[in-house]
């Protein structure tokens, strides 16, 4: 599936230009923001430490958060699995007689498949982030964490709106945005429940934070009478000063902004004497496999991730294959690590093997998370197997081949013999421009999409011996 | 309650959830550090607080200059007015000039806030035909709450103040309080915010230092909804073309009253 979707994406010239446009704009803009912070260049390293501290003390963080929110009249629910989280939400919807839901963009609700479950109960669900709304109308999946409809052209959006909203066709983005504004405004006004995610909670003050530029999350969390927020259990900072540093870095990573257009700290329902705001507030805190990541020192660092999408904007692989090949709500380098960890390493093995380990994601990450290290660790699990992660070793022949290779490498004489043999055999291979075009089985996979440089006439050691007599 | 012959029997999901985390973290062996939460400001933060509290009129002029440079990139309109009366007249002109986005009739909604009330917009002769609503609410009459909602929905301009305005990022910080309906800065097509010069801060760090350590701020807390607004609503979701007015206001007019000494 990964390979097939990736191939399709690479062959799509419109998607290719959208992806390179996105990366060309956001990647460098984010990088230049990092350099100009009042706290100096080590803000990112500090923020990494803040996140790590919160994750290392997650029990205390969550207990503190829940206590404060309850003090303020909010309700807090703990969901061990995706189905628990969905059940909690359906229960809230039923008790409050909810018919219409408006949603702010939330990757966690994608992860647990909330929309489907609500719609199966006959509840109308409308995504309200413009990008999410477009793909909801089109019946597709988001292809970027921050810009979910990046794979759609303005013409496609125009046709979609004409078909689904009945608006006159246009490919003018401002007019299309206005069409969606008009359609969704009615939904906001009619909704009785708003669903949001949580970018980052603050334990000390007892608030969740939501960030948007469109204002859709503010709409969804201000107008309906019930607000249900979903939060991956790791998305929390200990105190306000640490929270603000991480939040600002997240805005830089996500959209090259100093701070998102609308940031809301939500700590509970509106008070009885407030003129507006939801009368009830529920926070659903989700585990769904995160505690297993927490328990493994090798991958705990991944729980520090704040899903800003900065790594997508620099990744050479994402830049070519787009988001759909990753097959989950989490795309790009972050998806390549998180999807296997949440959904099964064997099942998502293509993801971590598809990345290049070039390190661009680590450089772009606002928290300097070492994604390449974790991609390698996942590959090691695939090769060796790991019962704790229910990983079966992926390919025994491959492992055997490398065992043979390591033997050969340890025996100079045998190595030299094979080298000479190789030089003879390679002359029989089809080649052009001094490159080997095709290798025979079982090496044919290597040359399926690339040419191979032939073995040199003489090795470095041979040349050295010949020209320098083996001396410096 | 605990494990019984290797099988977990029914336990409070919350306790079980936290226990799973504790096990993953290697508790109780692995104890938390003493410095998880902060209880007193750092030296740096103390200096910053002092700096904010002793800021002179001249220093604030520099902040206005900084703000002037920030607003264009955020698609905001900055208006500097010398007095409340001039601010009221300028807002009056804006109400006359601008056209409503939905429908044809004009109405305006304002926070019930001392500064906004002082504008006395309903006393401006030119605005006599235009309903100026106010979100005053005492929490008693649910009918009144519905009325506020429909007035906010019908209004094309919403007028609020803010707790602070941050020069470096043109950010308005608003806690939620009775009378300060959140939807006034969100639902109408045009958001007008009025602050006094003394409410200006240099950057976000100053804001957070105040929110965290200033005595009055600490006492009030962040409230159940603290919102930071930097510019009107915008989106780039169709081919990354920036469009203003996605769901929230399409325009944001920031009025700063610059009079040096106030007599109120």
Helix content of chain B: 25-40%
> Could you report the average pLDDT of chain A, rounded to the nearest whole number?
94
Percent strand of chain A equals 5-15%
Report, as a whole number of angstroms, the end-to-end distance of chain B.
Answer: 63 Å
Instruction: Provide mean pLDDT of chain B, rounded.
Output: 93
CATH architecture of the domain at 37-288 in chain A: 3-Layer(aba) Sandwich
Structural class of chain A: alpha/beta
Strand order of the largest sheet of chain A: 1-10-7-4-2-3
The biggest sheet of chain A, with number of strands, parallel, antiparallel or mixed sense and barrel status, is: 6 strands, parallel
With strands numbered from the N-terminus, the spatial order across the biggest sheet of chain B is 1-12-7-4-2-3
| Largest sheet descriptor of chain B | 6 strands, parallel
**How far is it from the N-terminal to the C-terminal residue of chain A, by CA?**
53 Å
CATH-derived topology of the domain at 37-288 in chain A: Rossmann fold
